[in-house]
Amino acid sequence: MKSAYLGCAMSAVAAALCMAPTVQAQTQNPPFEDSAQTEDNGRVSLHDIIVTAQKARTSLQHTVGSIIAVDGDRAAKEGKTTLSQVLRDSAGVQLMGTGASGQGFFVSIRGVGFAPVFGQDSPVTVSLNGVFQQRAQSTRALFYDIARVEVVKGPDSTLNGRNALGGSVTIIANDPSHRLEASGTAEIGNYGLLAGQAMVNIPIGDKLALRGAISSEGRNGYLSNGGSDSHVTGMRLRGLWEPSSKFKIILTADHAVQNGLGQQQSSTGLIDLTQPIKFPTGYWTSNNPSSGYRRFINDNYYADITADLGFAQLFVQPTYNRSRYSLESNTFSLLTYQTRLSQALASSHPDPTGIAGALASTNGKEISRQDQKTLEVRLSSQPGARIKWLLGGYYLNNTEDTGVNQQGGTGYTTSARTTTLATTSVPATAVVDPGIAPPAFYSSYSPHREVRNLAGFGQITYPVTDRFRVTAGLRYTAERKLRNEQVGNLCVANSIQTSTCATSGNSSLNGTPINTTLFYLLDNGAAGTTTNNGLWSASNPTGNRVFFSVPAGQLNSNRLDYKISAQYDLSPTSNVYALVSTGFKSGGFINIPPPSSGLLNPGFTSTFDPETMTSYEIGTKNDLLNHRWRLNFSAFIYDYRNYQFSYAAQVFSPTANLGYTARTIDPDYTTTITANAARARTFGMELESTVILSPHDRFTLNISYLDAKFRTVNLAGGTAATVAFGQSLSGFALPRSPKFAISPGYSHVFDVGHAGTLVASMDGRFETESNLAIPSNAAALAAGWYRQPSFMKLNATLAFNPAKGNWGVTAYIRNIGNVGTLQSISLPTSYTNTVPVFGALNQTAIGFEAADPRTYGVTITAKF
């Protein structure tokens, strides 16, 4: 199958290149120059740009592999002030919101990528000036005074480690320089957008220089309840000391703050689970009140030390990164309110509205902190050396601590169930007993995670001939993950009073860090009775308090990754290449008790295995027609082992022995876990084309094709190709892998006499439907609730560049058609068509996060 795919792709490459040598013979430009798109007062042309994706300065068009490079100045002129805007048209690249984690994004490259949760790692590395950012949302407030953005598509593990399984994104800020300069940008737009950036570079003598930059953005929320707002501030100070031409130090400190409600999910409202999902006309309308206030602070401190040792170049980069995240939430579930109100009314409860409101609200506070230290040391060959080589070592120590305290109403009642437990998405089917107040639960937990990583790597490029080069690279990684011991501690009161829970139970365990809320696992009372089990105590072990333990854990990973490539120059400006590379993403912990606890169904464990991938890629890069047509093509196959993904499963056993006489685990309860699919594979192709039609006209076209599917899935609770609820995942498309993504763009330059030029541009993106999640049951699989339908979005800009003066004005409109699309979705876990959940229909609510609506604004840029 691999040979067939690659054979077809190679035929396409050969057809595309058959004319390359004759066309390119007209050009005299030597290879290994910079290659990027530049402008002369709006007029466009193709030239060269230097990139550092290979930890050395190389030409973009002569670097093996699929790499994107976007110039920072050009992006600013086009009004693109965020990473998602800069990369929105890139083939194979998607940036998604981070949902509840705040104002940020996560990156998916060629279908590889997801929003990491606590204890998991993103498979795409995001770094700022080479400093790895564990939480990619930190770069949201640091995207200013940017020299360029580089994206490596495909495994980049030999140079960037375990987090680069799917590729890497590097944001490169401008270095201090020995010239006096300043710049500024101001932006105003709809949704109350006010933003600005400023930079000043000051030389101090001929050896020192300082460069300072600041950025701020304030915007109202896209959602009707104020959610998905943006309030960010960033500051960066860089100092340069260059005592000689052979030694240089750049010291950097940057600080970023993000406040506000942050990105949030909207809701479909109540829907009939027996029907395909229909999203509302207004994707940005939310029936729920906003859910809490977020604050994210991120600081980076690092040094870039370079020295010419004569025989080699030395680079040393020590870094320290610190981030703090806090969330104060006050959420209200419309679904819970409506359903519990109907139950309370049916039971003739004296205060049905009050009880339903109390059950639907949840108050909580989350505090998370991360501290990271890294050190990278590299020795590399001198620029211009015939044989290019690099040797390096890397050390990382990352610790994360999270503390959560939560209080809220539950879906349960203190009365007993009056009906038999059914497989429903909401466990309780009994009505509220009119004589007993509903319960509240109080929980807290503070998990700790630590990652220690030590790696050595090297790469060498050998020119077999003047036209033919081979490259080989290796990286050996030794990694250790640690998790603290966690003791489960959950209190459920018979009335909503914090003090009741705070003083009850085993005092020696009060305040102990815990893992999760186990109350949802319990049947609250004996079926067919109105027995109230009361609070937990030593003499009443059947009360509403549960303790369990998640022991401390340690996971060790040792991995040898490699890269082998060959590249042949068909002409000075056309080449073909072949590349084989590997990557891995380490395993991790699942915060559930171990199998030895007796609480789990057979086959479930509290850890998941590392994910590995081997990539096979062929491609060609060409500057044709005397540098007027850039045409790059690649075809690739990804072969996964132990592909990591998350899904909802019936982890806990309803027959578990809890040590109580009147307690069982609710068989309806599911929890989201990370698991491994034994095999998955992706075949894909990408075409990137830029044509300079005239000095005034430019046309771009980026196309990506993905065929990404599960092959073998071995999960607990199912067969070799099923999950616990019975749906087959063999042949199921991997999440965030649209079959086709097409991004055309066109710009035209209008001369406005002696005043200057107007540049009118339009671009768009079309995507076929794709999966956003793994369906949690067979019904969800059949109905297709997890899918993002196909869509087309259009954007337009109009920029004025004066003939005199280094400034410009750009007006933009994005998502002209106000097309609603999904970034994430939460699915119901299970239900049955035969047993009604609420009344006559099986109903629930599905939460989703919508992408940006139509936005428009004006930016003004100036340089001095």
Summarize the structure.
It is found in: Cell outer membrane. This protein is mostly beta strands and 864 residues long.
Verbal overview:
It is found in: Cell outer membrane. This is Iron complex outermembrane receptor protein. Residues 1-25 form the signal peptide. This protein has 9 helices and 45 strands. The chain has 864 residues and is mainly beta. It has one domain (2-241, 256-863): TonB-dependent receptor, beta-barrel domain (Maltoporin, Chain A, Beta Barrel). Helix 6 (334-346) packs antiparallel against helix 7. The longest helix has 16 residues, at 2-17. The relative contact order is 0.13.
Average pLDDT works out at 75
Supply the number of helical segments: 9
The percent of residues in helical segments reads under 10%
Q: Which fold name corresponds to the CATH topology?
A: Maltoporin, Chain A
The top-level CATH class is Mainly Beta
SS class:
mainly beta
User: How large is the share of residues in beta strands?
Assistant: over 45%
Radius of gyration: 29 Å
- The CATH level-2 architecture is identified as Beta Barrel
**Total of domains:** 1
Distance between the termini: 58 Å
Bulk shape: globular
Total strand segments: 45
CATH homologous superfamily?
TonB-dependent receptor, beta-barrel domain
- Low-pLDDT residue spans: 1-43, 99-103, 408-442, 488-547, 718-726, 830-842
Oligomer: single chain
Largest sheet: 22 strands, antiparallel, barrel
Pfam family, one: TonB_dep_Rec_b-barrel
Organism: Novosphingobium sediminicola
Region (Disordered): 353-373
Domain TonB-dependent receptor plug: 60-167
